[in-house]
Amino acid sequence: MLNFRSPETTPLVRLNNAGVRRNGRWLVRGVEFSISPGEIVTLIGPNGSGKSTTAKTAIGVLKADEGYVERKPGLKVGYVPQKLSVDWTLPLTVERLMTLTGPLKGREIEEALSATGVLHLAKAEVQHLSGGEFQRALLARAIARKPDLLVLDEPVQGVDFSGEIALYELIKQIRNRTGCGILLISHDLHIVMAETDTVVCLNGHVCCTGTPQAVSQSPEYQKLFGRRAASTLAVYSHNHDHTHLPDGRVLHADGSITEHCYPGDGHHHDEDDNVHDHGDDCGCGHHSRLHGFELKEKRDA
Ligand SMILES: Nc1ncnc2c1ncn2[C@@H]1O[C@H](COP(=O)(O)OP(=O)(O)OP(=O)(O)O)[C@@H](O)[C@H]1O
């Protein structure tokens, strides 16, 4: 595995007291954090707290009206926005989606689709894809040009719980393989992927920042989310001896592929707290596990 985040690593992006103002209102203000190669930074915060605005400012889609943003010279960014402006009434294949915003060689398209497990859908119509397949196609598009920094705005939207785990696993693999930095916007206030190095909790400003564990225990986080913070800031953990392929089949540790996983398969075998039943999608009624950081009970006073 690559040696991520050595102390001398120069950040890919650093926001210094950055603020964005529109129509006389500060959308975000005083935002400070950086992303280094191989680092995963997750932005969390309530709706309208400025997560997308911050991500766009980080990559230069929006300009900071206050403070400044430093970027590594020649920084290549792969961006999966929260919303895509595509006319869904027009036919659009996955292959074509890949080249909408710029040319790619056939080999590059193939490599990217294969890396995200949707090569078999290259000729499929985008509007017929499932939520998980669509997110994988968008991810393929973002990694095709081999970015230094991958920015994923709610990459698990429209994806069921087992699909979320698979997508987070894929994001981790991309980071491990390429060493790119990742800025992730979490759709869920209380769940971040296990490999997150730094959580930045926004509420128009940086409410608190640090490791998932530090943020979950911070009084600011608990104050911001009140009663809901009394539950947990959970971290995805993934332990398994088989992999669910995008086409629904199951790849086992011995290399065999079956239609369903076996009842005794061990990818959800821990009997921890915070066990979430994610249904019977894979045919064996197994469980996925969220590894929770316990927060002290804190009711709204
Ligand atoms: N171009 C703009 N002009 C004016 N206001 C804007 C603009 N873009 C965003 N906003 C406002 O800025 C605030 C932050 O929006 P942003 O999309 O960054 O929040 P978010 O945390 O990503 O929200 P969500 O979780 O709902 O996606 C919101 O109140 C939004 O209405």
Automatic annotation (TrEMBL):
Entry keywords, A to Z: ATP-binding, Hydrolase, Nucleotide-binding
Hydrolase in keyword set: yes
EC number(s) reported in the record: 3.6.3.-
Protein name, as recorded: Zinc transport system ATP-binding protein
Taxonomic source organism: Ensifer adhaerens (Sinorhizobium morelense)
